Amino acid sequence: MTAPALRAASPKQRRSPAAAPTRNREEDELLGKAFDLAQRLGILAYHPLPAQIRPGRYVTAAQGSGAKGFLDSVFAGPGGQLFREFKATDGVVSVEQQRWMDMLAAGGADVAVWRPVDLLSGRISAELNGIRRPRKPVGDVDAFRAALEQIRDASPDAVSTSALLATVQQLAADVLAGRYHDLTGMARG
């Protein structure tokens, strides 16, 4: 026996009153518009769906020490990821949501709350467009300096001037392209 095919529901379908409880109409509409925009831009969007466990009782399946409070949605594109919580104009971030936001931000994630004003101002569109294309790699200046110090510290007999120049040119190109090579072995032997 095979499982029935599943199809992705649009945010509007997901939040129909018959299918699931409505948290807040303003948040649901904002979520739907953000998901529509993400789809038009070719960005992946994720939002967990609540399940009815008995009449009038809905839960979102989650497990782990941070099961409560995970943000509403995650968006992913070639240029990065966005973790977003959707709130109505007067919506308040819960303690658990703030804990997730703080932890994700501490790890370098792009985390924020989106409200209806953010759709009107163009912020949501700008942030989704910001992850639409791959980011250009930025050279690691510290890695470049460390590699130059390795070369400088090498014995002058170990590397000829032309080989040193070629190595520095290649190193500069690699660092600017986001690659770094440990030159210790080459410079010393």
From TrEMBL:
Residues 1-27 are annotated as: Disordered. Gene3D superfamilies: 3.40.1350.10. GO terms for molecular function: nucleic acid binding. It comes from the Bacteria. This is VRR-NUC domain-containing protein. It comes from Micromonospora costi.
